[in-house]
Task: inverse folding
């Protein structure tokens, strides 16, 4: 077999394979489009469900906190009301004493400041804040 014959045969094979390749590529693209079309409405439904869940959790938290109880036994779950956690809010870094300032926020320094503030000690540039109460919902095994 001559070189020209080999080259011609290889060229025909490349053309045939390129057609198969492009056909398979277009098929994969059409399948992907179908999948995307099926997924899009599900993503929308999920977004709505997550929004509804967040709104219901806010309403449940408010109701549980307003009940004045720390635990509420329900048919399918137990609700525990937790008080907001204390934290340090830096109001002015420039006013903070050097002992409370590090260039990287370290939990130990914030804890030290929190303990000082909890003892009603004054720290210029920082104050004690308390977060909102929150709940935990523990589902019963059904």
Result:
């Amino acid at each position: 077999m001559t070189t020209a014959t080999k080259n011609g045969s290889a060229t025909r094979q490349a053309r045939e394979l390129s057609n198969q390749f492009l056909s398979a590529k277009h098929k994969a693209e059409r399948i992907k489009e179908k999948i995307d079309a099926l997924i899009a409405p599900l993503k929308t439904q999920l977004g709505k469900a997550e929004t509804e869940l967040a709104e219901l959790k806010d309403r449940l938290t408010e109701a549980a906190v307003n009940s004045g109880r720390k635990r509420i036994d329900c048919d399918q779950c137990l609700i525990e009301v937790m008080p907001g956690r204390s934290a340090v809010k830096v109001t002015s870094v420039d006013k903070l004493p050097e002992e409370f300032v590090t260039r990287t926020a370290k939990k130990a320094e914030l804890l030290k400041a929190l303990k000082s503030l909890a003892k009603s000690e004054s720290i210029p540039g920082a104050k004690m804040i308390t977060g909102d109460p929150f709940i935990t919902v523990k589902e019963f095994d059904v």
